[in-house]
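Risk register update: the risk of archive-format incompatibility is retired. Evidence:
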Amino acid sequence: MPEIAEAARIVHFLKTHLVGKRIKTAKAVDDGNVFGKVGTTGTAVADALKGKMVVSAGSQGKYFWLVLGSAPHLVMHFGMTGWMHIRGMRTGYTNYYNKLKADELDAWPPKFWKFQFETDGNPKLEVAFTDPRRFGRVRLIDCPGAAIRKHSPLVENGPDPVVDAETTFTEEYFLTTMHKRHMPIKALLLDQAFISGIGNWVGDEVLFHARLHPEQYCDDFSEAQMKKLYQSIRYVCQTAVDLLGDSDRFPADWLFQHRWGKGSKNSVAQLPNGEKLAFLTVGGRTSCFAPALQKKTGKVAPGIKEEPVVIKEEKARNGTTVPAQKKGSAKTAAAAESVAVPEKQAGDKRKRVSAKKESPDDEDEKVAVRPKKGKTVKAAANPRTTPGRKASTAAPSTLSTETELETKMPAASTGRRRSARLSLH
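Archived output:
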């Protein structure tokens, strides 16, 4: 699932190539999920884009936006598999292009597009928003461009640890919130009302650097541990954003470089010093950590089972076997979720699948508040969770600005990880 670094990455491309240009034509499909779930339509989005100058682009956590010459403006979220493409550029992940067939690499518009537009002038720029699994969201916000963050959904989300590093995301804010809450620390980090932009792999990375156990209650750490965690968040998020999510350039000592496994099939992933990695499910999400380094120092949520991280192989779309991790091939933040399940465009007949519901975007990580300190809260252990496989059900959310929960399409490759190095072109 795209996190803070992916939003920063696409904003980089939009600022570099799109800002300052006028949109000549635009069109969209009327997807009831991507547009309808947030109160608009593809037609309305296309109409809002036509003839408008793109004034600026920005991001807060996992959300990003385009400020147009006049309201309404576009606020977007990638969900699980959304992305924005610019014709002739590789804005996405290396593995995304590796999985395409030869005749799809330069096809335009790209598969699963939801809206697309082109600018006037010479040369013109062609841009498209795609989303195979349709968990992304595209909103129209009717407000002054400078006030986007004061309106829903951004106003309900917490500070961005990079954008707001010198203003609202202070150490005082961080420590005060941790003292007030009583929940596993990994679940708190995923709460977008607390911090914007931290998803699964970023949460694991900051806990690894702070040497904190993911299931320990957030208010049961020492002051020194809390301060160290704050600094780890600042460091990991800033570094990932500065590198635009390009995992090939991530530091060698990051958990990210080893959590996906290097070595033979069905071996246990480990750090270079031999420390084994394991996973457990916290807050409805699978957490990777190093048990020997991230020891419990306080109370933890009961009933959470720890399993080793087992390296497996995955199948590329062309049917060839891809090693789980080749030397020098790190995975990136956007690839932390299951491989996307293709789905037809809106309006086509789709197969209805009965499955457990969970919230697909950043709001799936807003977990229930524990208002009374000291109460024992059981974290749901998923008996079906096995090594190399993700838990299938997320924790229910009480902080979501979108209360509906959506049916996830079961992916045949659930639990596998996509190799997704980012390349800048």
